[in-house]
Amino acid sequence: MSFYLLLTGLVIAHLLADFYWQPISWVYDRNTRHFRASKLYLHVLMHSTVSALVIILWEYQYGWGDWSNILVATLIIAVTHYFIDIAKSYSNKGVVPFVLDQCAHLIVILMVAVWLADNQLFYYQLLHQLIALDTLIILTGYLLVLNPSSVFIRMALERITSGFSTSGSIPAAGHSIGLLERVLMLTFILMGEYAGVGFLLAAKSIFRFGDLRASEEKQLTEYVMLGTLLSVTVTLFIGLTINFLTKQ
User: Fold this and answer.
1) Residue 210 sits in which domain range?
2) What average pLDDT does range 167-174 have in this prediction?
């Protein structure tokens, strides 16, 4: 319990310092001046101060340990945060660098919390959960509903795609919508929330109704309907198969 309390506190501290207390001008300064940015050092100082406060409060609640551990943990968070942010400042500022940046910060926080709480058993439990059969089956399911399902649906609809134009649409928008749609549907199915699948389909139908009604291409309507039904069918099959296998 104390480990998860510390971990949650450090994550909250990170979120506050990174997304609520960091002005956009600091981000711009870091991205343009990199290691010469004075705002970066203020940002790291804020992070380390808030993290140190969380650690001190946690130590106070669960009995004082060695003061050097508090200093070392704070220093680790500060130094790693500095170098991770520097690395991100040289990136293309896209979604992938953002996700990698946040994952790197969270991994450091996790390792610091495990070390301070002396919870080495956590690594064993995490590894055991990651390589568990049910986890691997679920991971396989999510991999299947992404690109493999997109390829299958595109091939299944290939014969009718040459009859109309999709000009005016955002490039690859349909592919991205399909990916998100199937991921959400699979999540609802695995949770047993089949009403969520219905809500998702209803919401999509409402948003698409105006476009399809205004379209003079009946074939476009048929294409969208077939694509949606194929997407639902594939995801339902994968989700129900996963539920069957994981309950054995």
Assistant:
1) 133-246
2) 60
